[in-house]
Structure of Glyoxylase-like metal-dependent hydrolase (Beta-lactamase superfamily II):
Amino acid sequence: MMDHAPESAHFRRLEDHVFLAERGGPPPLNVGLILGEDAAVLIDPGPAGGDHTALLAAVRELSSAELIVVNTHGHPDHVGANDFLRRQGVHRILAHADAGVETATDLVAAEPVTLPLGGGVEVVLEHLGRGHTQGDLVVGVRAEGSTGVMFCGDLVREGDDPEFHDSYPKEWVRALGRLWSMAGSYSRFVPGHGHEVDADFIASMRRRMQQGYNVSSQAIRESVNDATKAIPIVPYGPGESRELITRLRGR
Ligand SMILES: [Zn+2]
């Protein structure tokens, strides 16, 4: 008998070439895996702690192709495992230039980057402007017969409030509008945390954030010294409402 069970890593299939695993938490992180014939992309491998050997073994059970890591942004619960993977021979890690990911080898800026993975599978990395952080990427998967899966990182949050602490709320609303407008090419949206959502969810998240931005901005204009009085009318829980106001007031 072992003292503690090792972390299990299980990828479930979303579509032919697209897999999803949950790591850590609560709330657990969504880790994406896209398989082509020549290369595989692992999206947000997870925090620094945890059993990365199990994660890598689960990837290798599905594919022995070259492994490329993509980070949706620089928060530690998404990028902490990069280090381990580099030591295990992963030599390409892509992140946005402003995401502050020290382990990244390839930086993405304004221009979208397409990674052809072989066998007609393609992954497109795109920066929709600042939002959850100053360096968010969304990661779209295109393949024959696929309805299009989009990995949204923490730009989209299901099951809990969005996290505003180092966000750009006004630009985030705009980024969600851009994401929603991609619904013609992508029908499935996977948030950084929480369950898969559809385009309607993105639209309602955008509306709510616009409303939160409006009431917070108005409260700041009307009472600069105590805008936190607006917390009850901001459409989020008290913690994130306070973060939103703090973020807007500081700018
Ligand atoms: Zn985050």
Observations:
- The domain at 12-197 is CATH 3.60.15.10 (Metallo-beta-lactamase; Chain A).
- Confidence is low (pLDDT under 50) at residues 1-5.
- The two ends are 56 Å apart (CA to CA).
- Residues 199-222 form the longest helix (24 residues).
